[in-house]
């Protein structure tokens, strides 16, 4: 497989540290509000990456942190008059509900920052002992002039670094590459922890340095996030972890691009955002949202609009309609030798595309070409039940990567619709047209359209 590594600035052949095993860390949610779908773009890209690695035969050990103490969570708790724990517990619960709704596979560990405070203080202590960190008025800072590689991920030139100046807040612009906070001293309105380096709380960046290497060791294979994490967050993680351990932190850095709305980044601070819950309330199928977020290459900007959402719905419906027709229209007995050939070719195209830096557009093109080719055979009644089984199992394999066709949803729905169609057929045979029409209307309200064809009744989603 090849991935574009932000660190080297080019596509590289991926080589895992352990044979056929990948250790993956992805920056998780800061739990102070519902995540918006711009946040989910990153989580879905990471899910695609993980599923593609598994598809290619790797075992993946995945860790995603939960930032449950930082500037934002504290601010939110104070503004609500709640405890930090009350706020973060609420949004952690919402986060897990949302990732399940989007069929995002779970990580192996979700470490919470507040459960690793001692390890964070210990890392700061070592950084100070080694001369990379210093104390000022009870807080601790990282001295960026001491770490030779500072700026290598975000491509900042040495003369652009504002050495000797300090910055307190967790997030800041690239032009402000200052000494950053490792540990923030106890303040009146903030939660704090007692530690060997004095009372206070960790900075955001040290959280990820500690939690990633605790569960994955150092170096580990892949670290992901959104492009807005490159600076300062990931740059600072590298500075801390490499200074601490005296060795490389991460081999491959993968970053996904923003989701934009009318050309500007979707974010809470811009106020131009939709949460997953907003969209579902408007009646959007979560799998359509997943499809939209997964189907644009992760390094390209994705502009969100209800138009692009509708296009995704149409694409997903084409797949669903195809699979349904396949069941309805396959004929008994026989095997079409062409089918095996088409399946094999598509399987090759699909995996080669994914191996090339997750080229999802090419992979999806292979799938839709496949549908077109099989449809041609279907229309000539040249697909047999055995072929149909082969086709369905190929789709299952592709959907292990795409995750847009969860089984339970379809089979339950199908069973209930089939039952209604049978009742309607019986009613029509008995010339009870009033009942037949009533059932048709009921299905229509459920979003199901019936078509009476010469081969019998077919149904599809509105
Ligand atoms: Zn992080």
Account of the protein in words:
This protein has 462 residues and is of the alpha/beta class. The chain has helices spanning 37-55, 71-80, 84-101, 117-129, 204-216, 230-245, 276-281, 286-294, 306-329, 337-355, 360-379, 385-402, 407-429, 433-445; strands at residues 2-5, 10-13, 21-26, 59-64, 133-136, 139-142, 166-167, 179-185, 200-202, 220-226, 250-256, 259-261, 264-265, 302-304, 448-453, 456-461. Strands 5, 6, 7, 8 and 9 form a five-stranded mixed sheet that branches. Strand 10 (220-226), helix 6 and strand 11 (250-256) form a beta-alpha-beta unit. Helix 2 crosses helix 3 (84-101). Zinc ion (ZN) is lined by residues 27, 208, 233.
- Bound small-molecule species: zinc ion
Tell me what portion of residues adopts beta-strand conformation: 15-25%
Number of helices, counting only DSSP H or I runs of 4 residues or more: 14
Instruction: Provide the low-confidence segments as ranges.
Output: none
Largest sheet: 5 strands, mixed
Classify the helix fraction into a percent range: 40-55%
Q: Roughly how many Å is the radius of gyration? A: 26 Å
Helix and strand composition category: alpha/beta
The H-and-E topology, N to C, reads as: EEEHEHHHEEEEEHEHEEEHHEHHHHHHEE
Name the average pLDDT: 92
Which descriptors would you attach to this protein?
4-stranded parallel beta sheet; 16% strand; 14 helices; 462 residues
Topology diagram in text:
Blueprint: E1 2-5, E2 10-13, E3 21-26, H1 37-55, E4 59-64, H2 71-80, H3 84-101, H4 117-129, E5 133-136, E6 139-142, E7 166-167, E8 179-185, E9 200-202, H5 204-216, E10 220-226, H6 230-245, E11 250-256, E12 259-261, E13 264-265, H7 276-281, H8 286-294, E14 302-304, H9 306-329, H10 337-355, H11 360-379, H12 385-402, H13 407-429, H14 433-445, E15 448-453, E16 456-461
Parallel strand pairs: 3-4, 3-10, 7-8, 10-11, 12-14
Antiparallel strand pairs: 1-2, 5-6, 6-8, 8-9, 12-13, 15-16
Helix pairs in contact: 1-8, 1-12, 2-3, 4-5, 5-6, 8-9, 9-11, 10-11, 10-12, 13-14
Zinc ion binds next to loops.
